[in-house]
Write a structure and sequence with these properties.
With 475 residues, the protein is an alpha/beta fold. It contains 13 helices and 20 strands. 25% of the residues lie in helices and 27% in strands. The strands form 5 sheets. It has a 6-stranded mixed sheet, with helices on both faces. The chain has a 4-stranded mixed sheet with strand order 1-5-6-7, sandwiched between helices. The protein has a 4-stranded mixed sheet with strand order 4-3-2-20.
Length: 475
């Protein structure tokens, strides 16, 4: 979305080794024939969910998780280690729904030997179907407050074009008691967080819903006498959560981050790609990457952590010129204005040199139709004195975030947070923030469970909260 979206040809030219299956892949909403409305739960003959209530992001023990393990992750050691650290960290008694490719069943089953076999439901997908490990995003998990059976529903948005992830909810319905449904709205799970009497939605997708209504791509007519904004809020209450207040999270004005910057530092020529994962009104495209819900504090105010690149720079002695610190500060100030107890924590905006090429090669590519967006930076490099033989270093940026964690706040089992770690190997300097985050959560009364190295996930624009879906919470 917005500044985080790059043309495939130009991006692959600049970052030829970029990982596939990024969390932002295909994060656009193409036009759809309104005849598709016939598939929506709201238009079906059966009544569907009467009083939707979302599964909490923080309250109660984690009783049931949906996990998604595609072959590319099962057979990549660094990704499999992350998956397994989550499985091993969950207390015995946790139930799992596990989506996997058919040929990987034996390997995946072996990962759950520490849990009773009866607690694991396997959902096989044909090997020819592509899907990702970002189990959080393609749907929201909710229950019907009027249904005594407490069935869990996976509510899908109007469209979810990333890989084959839109097939997961229906496949889970075929193999478990979980039901699949759909709403005429735009949302993704990672852009939603669920509190006590409120739930949060990143502003970008609320605006996307409005745009698709205005363009006629959603089969919705706004009733006379109501504004589009009022009616979209009403629709989110009808389909997503009828009892909690919807609060939007984002800046008041567009962030204005460009796709490409020509930077000259200490005689080096750097082509910066800073917007990987940035939204239009959100410093990261999903709020679960920079906001964490911790539950009420001793004073009764609900605690929210908001990431801060400035705190990370202070701890690491680094500079993050494209980190959009003012956007995080604006969002934190808005939470404070709403009465939340706001804490700040380090969040890293990390660069990586992804390619070195001559200025002549960059200039030649910019002269093609695929490279048209690069012509401005070519002009700026020329003005800065670049010669045909000058080396241009492509510097791609991504977020490393501890906000994207798993939280339990239970009256019976206490408070526990499952934190990803990043201070490993080439990123060993991040160990100081691993330690700082443990101190922060311990200071709030939580037991900290450290998970594996999640750098391989962060480079793909997601972390641990992204690879699971809460299907059930205990008291």
């Amino acid at each position: 979305m917005g500044a985080g979206t790059y043309g495939d040809a130009a991006y692959r030219f600049l970052v030829p080794g970029a990982p596939h299956h990024k969390r932002t892949d295909s994060d656009l909403f193409p036009a759809f024939d309104s005849a598709r409305a016939a598939t929506l739960n709201v238009f079906r003959a059966r009544p569907g969910v009467q009083r939707p209530s979302l599964i909490s992001s923080w309250s109660g023990t984690i009783e049931s998780l949906l996990l998604s393990f595609p072959s590319y992750g099962v057979h990549a050691a660094e990704l499999a280690a992350g998956y397994r650290s989550v499985i091993d960290a969950m207390r015995v008694g946790t139930r799992f729904v596990v989506v996997h490719h058919e040929s990987d069943r034996q390997v995946v089953e072996g990962w759950f030997r520490g849990h009773p076999a009866a607690n694991v439901s396997y959902v096989p997908m044909p090997d020819y179907i592509d899907f990702t490990d970002w189990a959080e995003d393609g749907y929201l998990a909710l229950v019907d407050a009027d249904d005594e059976t407490s069935l869990t529903y996976l509510l899908e948005p109007w469209s979810f074009p990333r890989s084959g992830d839109s097939l997961i909810a229906d496949s889970v319905e075929e193999h478990t008691s979980v039901r699949a449904s759909q709403a005429p709205l735009v949302f993704q799970g990672g852009n939603c967080l669920i509190g006590d009497d409120f739930w949060l939605l990143g502003t970008d997708y609320f605006l996307d819903t409005l745009e698709l209504i205005r363009s006629g791509e959603l089969p919705i007519s706004v009733p006379e006498g109501r504004t589009e904004v009022e009616f979209v809020r009403e629709l989110f209450g009808r389909h997503v959560d009828s009892g909690r207040e919807l609060q939007l999270v984002g800046t008041k004005s567009p962030l204005g981050l460009k796709k490409y910057y020509a930077t000259v530092e200490n005689g080096q020529y750097l082509l910066d790609l800073p917007g990987g994962g940035t939204g239009d009104l959100q410093p990261i495209f999903h709020i679960d990457m920079f906001v964490t819900l911790a539950g009420p504090g001793d004073d009764g105010r609900f605690r929210v952590l908001v990431g801060s690149p400035a705190l990370a720079d202070s701890a690491l002695g680094t500079k993050s010129p494209f980190a959009l610190q003012t956007a995080y500060d604006e969002i934190a100030a808005e939470f404070d204005r709403r009465g939340f107890a706001v804490g700040r924590n380090p969040l890293v905006h990390r660069p990586q040199i992804t390619q070195r090429l001559t200025f002549a090669a960059l200039r030649d590519f910019a002269g093609t139709p695929d490279g048209a967006e690069l012509r401005q930076v070519v002009a700026e490099f020329t003005a800065a004195g670049a010669r045909p033989e000058t080396t241009i270093q492509v510097r791609s940026w991504h977020h490393i975030t501890w906000n994207n964690c798993l939280v339990e706040n239970s009256s019976s089992a206490g408070r526990t947070v499952y934190l990803p770690t990043f201070g490993h190997g080439e990123q060993a300097d991040l160990a100081v923030i691993d330690e700082e985050m443990e101190r922060l959560w311990t200071g709030m009364g939580f037991t900290v469970v450290r998970l594996a190295d999640f750098n391989a996930f962060a480079s793909r624009l997601g972390v641990v909260h992204c690879i699971k879906k809460y299907l059930g919470r205990g008291a």
